[in-house]
Model the fold of this input.
Amino acid sequence: MVTAFNIVYNTVINFTVELKTVARLIVLSARPRQPGSIVEIGKMMVGKPVKRATVRTPKSRRIPVSRPREPAAVMIAKRIEEDIVLGRRQPRERLVEQDLCDLFQTHRGDVRLALFELEKKGLVGRIPNRGALVRGLTPREVREIYAVREELEVMAVRIIPLPVGAQDIERLEELQRQHTAAIAAGDLLTVFYSNLSFHQVLFGLCGNACLIETIDLLAQKVYGIRSYANAFPDSLDRARRDHLDMIKALRGSRREQLVALTRRHLQPSPEAYIKDYERRFGKADLPLAL
Done:
């Protein structure tokens, strides 16, 4: 009887203590607390010391972020643009959607988006019932575009604040080293991109965002005629020397020399393109601008 009584007694006491502990925890959990604060759990058994537990905000795991893949349409547009720049695709050459799908292992939706982007840049045109073609400029169009380019680019170098900072000079020198190395290696694609970057940095020094954007837009329209001058080593070497002379003019704050170099630098590409156009189609401008 004594043993049974003790069992019942201990069970009742423990049960009562457990209820009190649960009630106290509910009250404590309802109170606002800061991360890392101490919560008293209470006496779990009669005669035991008070236990304390620390509630801490768990640290969030750092999840590695992978670079998003370039959309297929963007990649296709870039590849076609590079082919046009390098002369792999000639003016008025048809761009057949199914052929491009097979080449890039994709569907027509991506190809059409790519052609649409190239059309906005002025590199591709469309003719009803014929589809997309590499845009071919007439000599008159080339002269008009380059006349405007010359005035805008001269305007940009006229408003560059002089003297130019050493950091900007160093940036141009680094880009020109890349351009020179690409010419020596015969890497015409890097020649194109390093030349493009050189002029973007140069005209960017003027600080006029609207002027810079317009210069870029007009330059895009004539990407397709760059290959005609770049096919001749003398033209590439002349461009290299022009860049070096531009850097020297900037370092010496010789604005008029920089203006003269800017005008001269634009001449080889349109001259080479018009000469080839007239050889193929005659001197009269053909009405079809594509």
Remarks:
- Residues 1-19, 37-46 have pLDDT under 50 and may be disordered.
